[in-house]
Amino acid sequence: MSNTPTRKHTALPKAQILIEALPWLTRHNGKTVVIKFGGNAMVDEDLKAAFAQDVVFLRHAGLNVVVVHGGGPQISAALDKAGIVSEFKAGLRVTTEDAMDVVRMVLAGQVQRELVGLLNQHGPLAVGLTGEDAHTITATKHLPEIDGELVDIGRVGEITAIDTGAIEALLADGRIPVVSSIARSQDDGHVYNVNADTAAAALAAALGAETLMVLTDVEGLYENWPDSDEVISRLTASQLEKLLPELSSGMVPKMEGCLHAVRGGVTTARVIDGRVQHSILLEIFTDEGIGTMVVADERKSGQEGESS
Ligand SMILES: Nc1ncnc2c1ncn2[C@@H]1O[C@H](COP(=O)(O)OP(=O)(O)O)[C@@H](O)[C@H]1O
Ligand SMILES: CC(=O)N[C@@H](CCC(=O)OP(=O)(O)O)C(=O)O
């Protein structure tokens, strides 16, 4: 007996998925997406490999993809080995001069190299750089305000300028830039540790990206965390701005970054669960998305800068 009917059954859903993706692919062809891969989402080898596949898929589907990576837990582990205690204030790592050497070594020499290697298993696509390269990210010393006082947290940088030239040249050449969140100051010549969410958001805005996608180790932004784990699926910039003072720890730079990106012209900023395999493709190709989406405030005309 012929097995044609069975083959038909298995082939159809696959074709369906590709066809459903077609409008999205058409709309986003040639657009830029900045994907922030958080250190907490890099939990195992399979997840990292799936991340690389998704990124390469998007590149081959005609998008300009820029990866900005984190590495918080990896830095903490290396600092621990070096006998340096990790301390965070306002969601940012207190970075002494010695700690800065470790931060730079882990981000640029370890995490970035690993991601470049994984992406390049699919072809000569990824090129790693740090914010220091070609003045991509310039920073000055950041003094966060905590309880009404400016606090010195060491070599932590506040971004003052972005030069997109090197990234744009790489994108024009069909490459996937992989950026480590380290910046140089033009004032004092020092190298600064920049939170990777903040760097990703600033790059997304400066590149005029369509989408900022932040992969982390939770499903999205939870309402009333840690008492509840109800994910807020959609927020306008104004709604997020009101919520910001209530947020804590790692979510502060993440959501501030999303707000900055959307206010800077990025159409949507999304926080998604990087622990789910192929979360990037799932977010893009499912109607509702799987995490938290931040969009610009609704305009009176009913037009909205949203396109999922
Ligand atoms: N409202 C919230 N919703 C979700 N997570 C929150 C919230 N507030 C704080 N968090 C914490 O933020 C963490 C994510 O930030 P972070 O640890 O910096 O991750 P990443 O390495 O991906 O940047 C979550 O694991 C969670 O513990
Ligand atoms: C100033 C500051 O806090 N810098 C971060 C940079 C890495 C980062 O942001 O990594 P995740 O995205 O994995 O958290 C740090 O030292 O941990």
List the helices and strands and how they pair.
Elements: H1 4-28, E1 32-37, H2 45-60, E2 64-69, H3 72-81, E3 88-89, E4 92-93, H4 97-119, E5 126-130, E6 137-141, E7 145-146, E8 149-150, E9 157-162, H5 165-172, E10 176-180, E11 182-184, E12 191-193, H6 196-207, E13 211-216, E14 222-223, E15 230-231, E16 234-236, H7 237-243, H8 251-263, E17 268-273, H9 279-285, E18 292-295
Helix pairs in contact: 3-4, 6-8
Bound molecules: adenosine-5'-diphosphate and N-acetyl-L-glutamyl 5-phosphate.
Give structural notes.
With 308 residues, this protein is α/β, with parallel strands linked by helices. 39% of the residues lie in helices and 23% in strands. The protein has nine helices and 18 strands. The strands form six sheets. The chain has an eight-stranded mixed sheet with strand order 5-10-2-1-13-17-18-16, sandwiched between helices. Strands 3-4 form a two-stranded antiparallel sheet. Helix 3 packs across helix 4 (97-119) and helix 6 packs parallel to helix 8. It is globular and about 60 Å long. The chain starts with a helix and ends in a 13-residue tail after the last strand. The model is unreliable at 1-5 and 302-308 (pLDDT under 50). The structure holds adenosine-5'-diphosphate and N-acetyl-L-glutamyl 5-phosphate. Adenosine-5'-diphosphate (ADP) binds next to loops.
Features:
single chain; 308 residues; alpha/beta; 8-stranded mixed sheet; two-stranded antiparallel sheet; 18 strands; 39% helix; 23% strand; globular; disordered N terminus; binds adenosine-5'-diphosphate; binds N-acetyl-L-glutamyl 5-phosphate; Acetylglutamate kinase
